[in-house]
## 1
Amino acid sequence: MPEPNDTEGTVALAFSGGLDTTVCVPLLKEEYGYDDVIGVTVDVGQPEEEFEEAEETAEALGLDNYVVDAKDEFADLCLDAVKANATYQGYPLGTALARPVIAEAILEVAEEQGCTALAHGCTGKGNDQLRFETVWRDSELNVHAPVRELGLTREWEQEYADEKDLPVEGGDGGRWSIDTNLWSRSVEGSELEDPAHVPGEEIYDWTETPGGKDAELVEIEFEQGEAVAVDGEEMDAVSLIGHLNDLAGAHGVGRTDTMEDRMLGLKVRENYEHPAATVLLAAHEALEGLVLTKEERSFKQGIDQEWAEKGYQGLVNAPLFRALEGFIDETQTRVTGTVTVKLQGGQARPVGRESPYACYAEGHASFNTEDVTDDIEQGDATGVAKYHGFQERLANKVSEAADAETANKAVSDDD
Ligand code: ARG
């Protein structure tokens, strides 16, 4: 527990209007001794109902709640993630990328309002506490995590809320822990905590049950790795992502059910929906396949993996992250062109790609031309074919002979 004289002034709380952050409001005054609490809700593309819930709850609590629109900034980061083909253990990063954007926005409000501290409602088991605090602990303000520091459980919170007559909605809405932003929707908790439990369709909100809809083609245009238009229509990042979520979600594209290893080492069962992300990642990789050289493609995999790892950890301000982005941006100068993606039965499959930077000439690889180029003919490959695997064949032959020698020796030693 902090010393009382450390907790003067006003604390800015990351506020959603859910159970965790609602109970934090009285606790920050009563248990921590702050004079006042303000709430900050950051818009990274949550559904309208979440803002209504935050507003209603804040009003009932008498909490001043600030709403900050960070959608553009967040959407830009999502499109950067596409340049990096970023996935963590197979799913597109969503919550992870939103947290630093949210944390920065809250810190800004706190500083403008002269707050002395910052607080969030994350538990001590998840990743989000780490992603918030790595940003906040770079400031002079105190940082608090009441749920973690007071060891709260949802059951305790519910009882406390009843006792204090706090405005919290019980019922089905609170059955799962759901985190939604422009890029993805995550659902965890309750019956989903059993990895063997097969989730019902009711956990999904962005994706239709895959199947039952005719295939649809969508054309994505990229400029230097950045998605700029869909089906010939230029769009800003927020609209483009929203549009693709609707389009691909209708085909059931972008569902993930996975076991995830959190930063602290805990393994958890997670379900995600991310239609736009799935389409954009598939399209972008297909375009890279057309324009990048083999060596760029394979080296970039390691860079992409590292970007995603830092992204997962919320370390988007790390010097390494900037360096990785430098490499990625350099490779993206040629990732300009158009990819056609087929949406059908829960799949988003690239089926066509073109680019002025295509590292490809039909005549070179074609079955219908005799030579490769004017001065390389098919016959030139004979020498390469003779050499190919030379060392491997030799190694196998030598070890066979050596094994036989050892076996012979063992037999004669026995005699
Ligand atoms: N496991 C994911 C991550 O760490 C999603 C977390 C979602 N958070 C939530 N409160 N439901 O990025």
## 2
Amino acid sequence: RGATSSGVWRYKELIFDLPDDQIVTRQEGNTRLYDAGKAGVYAGLRHFQLKHEGENPTGSFKDRGMTCGTTAARFYGAKTVACASTGNTSASMASYAAVSGLSSVIFIPEGKIAYGKLAQALAFGGKTLQIRGNFDDAMALVQQVCHELNIYLLNSINPFRIEGQKAIGFEVLQQLDWQVPDWFVIPGGNLGNNTALSKGMKELYDLGIIDKIPRIAVIQAAGSAPLYKMWKNHTPYEAVKNPETIATAIKIGNPVSWEKSLRGLEWCNGVVESVTEQEIMDAKAMVDAAGIGAEPASCCSVAGAKKLVDAGVIDPEAHVVGILTGNVLKDPDAVIGYHKDELFDHYGIRGTYANKPQVIDAT
Ligand code: F0G
């Protein structure tokens, strides 16, 4: 029951070594690793696989961090947990808090998160505060509130979140019989997940469990790309003031983990790339049409892989694993807008590969 069948706690000696009866789990992880199919052809890769973290209990990779974060909250005797979120963190936290008997408080940017995620936060009983401002404002506010009211903060600034998310990489390697891919490609928002991936790989390497270092490509949406800007221009870090993107999960201008992220990328000889709104949504159409499906932010992995292949950075023969971070059902508005081929004026996106619905009069 519980911890032994979790795709996170299976590796607990490398994560957080607690007795099973102290663990809060929904048997997260154990997600599939798909051949990318059409999305691989689209990216120009012969060996492209997609790790579908949208198949977690609440539909995103956040569950791997949250099982660990809520376990830590209980371990340290917290009663209330909180987070700022673009949606998935809040959905996950509200669920794990409900499972473990903790109260949860959620700070979300008003009107700026996908409907599926807001629905989950409300359904699981999270106290939901809609903040007038963007995610970065909500993040600053929740840090202040947690500090003043002694509430346990469960954003990825919390090290236990990062520890749990290391298991994405561990599980991919186990699925590949411990063969290390040449590249991981992963979306970047608040920059916790790629930090977790590189930290996990470094630990396996230092322990001698793997003897090859996979390169990591972090992909940001062009309108929310502070890490990409500093990387490309060799300039000091500067937050983006008004982040924009249809991939609302990663609409973040001042990511809390940018320094850790950079340290990991330096270790693995990684790269940072940015993708346009159109590139994200066209890549998403391919992931969806491959029968796999994922939310917009996730598809940065495929859009970014294509761009890096086209630029000659990733070899078309390389073995590449893209991380799909969230479920296709999280953001139905983005899907339907694209396939109805309605120009998203605000984002300048067209349904290039639209599967237009037909209207038939049956009256
Ligand atoms: N993909 C999805 C679907 C996400 O929800 C997020 C982050 C990311 C990628 C980026 O991961 O922040 O570790 O770089 N969502 C957070 C949230 C910010 O509040 O749900 P990251």
